[in-house]
Amino acid sequence: MTLSRIELALEAAVGAAEGKGCPPELAKALRYAVFSGGARVRPRLCVAVAAACGDDRPGFADATAASVELLHCASLVHDDMPCFDNASLRRAKPTVHVMFGEPVAMLVGDGLIVLAFETIARAAVRCGATERLARVIKIVARGVGAPNGLVAGQAWESEPVIDVDRYHEAKTGALFVAATMAGAAAAGADPTPWRALGAHLGAAYQIADDLLDALSSSEDAGKPVGQDRAHDRPSAVHALGVDGALARLRAQIEAAVAAVPDCAGAEDLRDLVRLQAARLAPKSLARTAA
Question: Domain of 246?
């Protein structure tokens, strides 16, 4: 049910962007970037938090969740480009710049960022949630901008000296924090108690991504691996070793479960966190354990 809500909201958003007058290649590339097989982890988390907080404006919560996913997709398009990772695969498919060229890929990323905020604004009016709009916009914008959002996280890779904690918190953690806090705000609840859940989940996903990059094959990962070593980027595996990284991953997941605030839907949300956690470890480790 949650996933279908998110897909419908994403379809509505992309449908509006690719409407009459949109350059055909841009329209195709926007759709390709969004509907390419993502797990929708961040928007599912956003909707789950909204549900735990009462979800009295479900259309607004869905649009907020869709905006988080649009921003995530934009970050992947830009991250894959030749000026950053120069990746040829994403989710086991050719990346946007490989399919459509670098100029269109850059514009797709830009267009998805703009579309994310337009989607929230449009839904706020449609759903009678304009009094919540400013708070949600502020939360989401902080998750993607400077000084501590996703854009800042990407920028740390261009610094001569990387502040590892700030780099990971910004590049991965910030959008998870935005998902949890915006979900609460979209439902009219205080977003502050939901920050810790997003922060712990973001840390867990960063560690899991480091493990995936170090231990998986491109076939299993659906994208190029060995990028941290190739680009001399810090990683949990390099700092802690495989066993240490796995221990840190488990600790972050347990901290995330414990961080779910007391509310009517708390236990369902804890179950969702545990379910998502089960798919984080690289397949190679699961095969070894078996």
Answer: 2-274
